[in-house]
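User: Modeling request: complex.
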Amino acid sequence: MSRILRTEPSQVFSKAVEYHGFVYTQGLVPTNPDADIRAQVANVLGQIDEVLELHGTDTTRLLQAQIWLADISDRAALNEIWSAWLPEGQAPARALVQAVLADPRWRVEIMVTACK
Amino acid sequence: MSRILRTEPSQVFSKAVEYHGFVYTQGLVPTNPDADIRAQVANVLGQIDEVLELHGTDTTRLLQAQIWLADISDRAALNEIWSAWLPEGQAPARALVQAVLADPRWRVEIMVTACK
Amino acid sequence: MSRILRTEPSQVFSKAVEYHGFVYTQGLVPTNPDADIRAQVANVLGQIDEVLELHGTDTTRLLQAQIWLADISDRAALNEIWSAWLPEGQAPARALVQAVLADPRWRVEIMVTACK
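Assistant: Request completed. Predicted assembly structure:
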């Protein structure tokens, strides 16, 4: 058995879990829930940067991403911030759908799988 | 090529698939669809226990979970049963959104990735 | 660090990403958006065939699938095409929910994880 590393485990979820060179993040949500979509996306991507760094990796090593938007019409705004954030030629596989999120103020939730 | 192990494969999906020390479960749904949210969640978590055991692992080895609720306002009830079920300090990374599920009586669907 | 291989990386997402024997596809969507549900599903499954082949694998090596339907009542039609496509006894773990997709004409989006 390889070791499992958990970042900020609560009794409900961990912020990230690492195993065998793979890093799985929580569905990260904005800590600035009253901001607009662009600022909420930037906030979540900043959290991803931090958690990847904690696990010794970065945005050049993203494998898969799932994105939920509270309103699918925010997709263009999301993509603008998202594509500026990604290193050139390093985009993960991605799925994007609309969903009702746990807090009605959240406009975006993003979960990624990365590797080291 | 490592061997792939499939539990209860139908022509539509397998209950779980194991490869290279990783175990992927189906999006598990309640077999007690007329019960309330707490009983439905407990039912699904019991199925996860069983399928993890079949693959030689358990709830201390959860990496990632996705949860869909038919009604996001059931989140507190879900978290109550979920957090009592998880071993202390071993929570997976998790994403939770609301979605219309295949059977209108289902209030919850849970899919996990674990390791051995 | 193992090498990451990306198929058709854009600045937003890659069609597939391979790492350490795992292949993650994008949430693939129909290129025939005005067709009916059966034809849209067949179109997406054909794209999965192509991308798996590019990564040296095939439908006998599917681990996990996520399917989003714009209308959950299309599930029977989806399952009909899906189950005919899968090799016998080789179904992946799967989750299926309804979601609003990015283009209102898309009736289905499918993302899979496979191995080599």
